[in-house]
């Protein structure tokens, strides 16, 4: 192999406050040898997600990221060599490679991906982001035509797709995002009916004006104050799909969540359900067929934020947590 160095980014210290560049270090490691049942992978695109930050707090639906280890993360990779049946050099897979050029990963933990261009779509609309939006909205939120759907972090990788699928299903869609530019993009480019800028202050009031008939489905990516603003505005038998809580991930989590929740849930007969995309992977093929047809017909626009160079991953994740990105952020390795 011509390149004998495996560039790796370590999480050298778990942050107690906000995540900073000082928490990471780039090192030169060796290229691993795959064991029986494993494949040696060369990372092509690294996914950056708010969940990367949550993993630093402790175990979630996966083990915690520990200090002085390669930072965890999923990506699209090419098989270099294989000691596993069903995987051959040149195959494209998705898996937890970590933040490094090369990784040896058990084949049972890899998903073989179709060869399609642009390859970036395998991380965005046809990857975890698109599938999370699809299953969270349609299987958990269960919107009906004519209902009002509100989505937070609406300009992000998941939220921007949620809103567009809700429009495809005939709903009125309100996005909550940070900044006038993002809000304008949601309404002018992605077809949202209205957008609320939470950085403007007065989210509750602005939401009341944008969703004057109340909220039937709220797709929650952020938790905290925005969830608190949405809850009293839910209609009877409304559904809340809990996807993430980015407001709680970076820095010291706020001590309070939404107040007055139990009474509201009872009186309005609300359903509030958390989910992770892995719960629905047995239905992935049907979801991908829908997503591909919507992209092909132009009903679903794909927005990607691709940054070059593994060395830029720490700054790119810090920026994502600050809301810099529009659409799916990833690193081209």
Kindly summarize this structure in a few lines.
The protein has helices spanning 51-54, 128-141, 159-168, 180-188, 203-210, 224-230, 261-268, 284-297, 313-321; strands at residues 6-11, 24-29, 38-47, 69-70, 74-82, 92-96, 102-106, 111-112, 148-152, 172-177, 194-197, 215-220, 234-242, 271-274, 304-308, 328-332.
Structural features, described:
It is a single chain. By secondary structure, the protein is an alpha/beta fold. It has helices at residues 51-54, 128-141, 159-168, 180-188, 203-210, 224-230, 261-268, 284-297, 313-321; strands spanning 6-11, 24-29, 38-47, 69-70, 74-82, 92-96, 102-106, 111-112, 148-152, 172-177, 194-197, 215-220, 234-242, 271-274, 304-308, 328-332. It folds into two domains: 6-123 and 303-332, Quinone Oxidoreductase, Chain A, domain 1; 128-278, Rossmann fold (3-Layer(aba) Sandwich). α2 crosses α3 and α2 packs across α8. The mean pLDDT is 93. α7 (261-268) links the parallel β13 and β14 (271-274).
């Amino acid at each position: 192999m011509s390149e004998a160095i495996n560039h790796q980014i370590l999480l050298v210290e778990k942050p107690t406050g906000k995540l900073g560049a000082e928490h990471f270090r780039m090192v030169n490691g060796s290229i691993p040898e795959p064991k029986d049942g494993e494949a040696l992978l060369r990372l092509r695109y690294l996914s950056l997600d708010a969940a990367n930050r949550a993993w630093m707090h402790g175990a979630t639906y996966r083990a915690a990221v520990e200090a002085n280890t390669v930072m965890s993360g999923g990506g699209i990779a090419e098989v270099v060599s294989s000691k596993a049946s069903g995987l051959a050099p040149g195959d494209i897979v998705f898996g937890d490679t970590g933040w490094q050029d090369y990784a040896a990963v058990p084949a049972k933990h890899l998903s073989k991906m179709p060869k399609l261009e642009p390859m970036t779509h395998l991380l965005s609309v046809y990857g975890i982001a698109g599938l999370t939006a699809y299953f969270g909205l349609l299987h958990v939120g269960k919107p009906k035509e004519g209902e009002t759907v509100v989505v937070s972090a609406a300009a992000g990788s998941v939220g921007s797709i949620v809103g567009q699928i809700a429009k495809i299903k005939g709903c009125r869609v309100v996005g909550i995002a940070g900044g006038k530019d993002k809000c304008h993009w949601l309404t002018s480019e992605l077809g949202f009916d209205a957008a609320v800028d939470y950085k403007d202050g007065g989210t509750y009031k602005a939401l009341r004006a944008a969703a004057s008939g109340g909220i039937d489905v709220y797709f929650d990516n952020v938790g905290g104050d925005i969830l608190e603003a949405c809850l009293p505005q839910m209609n009877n038998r409304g559904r809340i799909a809990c996807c993430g809580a980015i407001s709680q991930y970076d820095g010291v989590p706020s001590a309070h969540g939404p107040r007055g929740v139990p009474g509201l849930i009872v009186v309005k007969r609300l359903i509030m359900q958390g989910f992770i995309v892995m719960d629905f992977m047995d239905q992935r093929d049907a979801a991908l067929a829908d997503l591909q047809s919507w992209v092909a017909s132009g009903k679903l626009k794909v927005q990607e934020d691709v940054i070059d160079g593994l060395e830029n991953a720490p700054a790119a994740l810090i920026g994502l947590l600050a809301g810099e990105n529009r659409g799916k952020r990833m690193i081209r390795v």
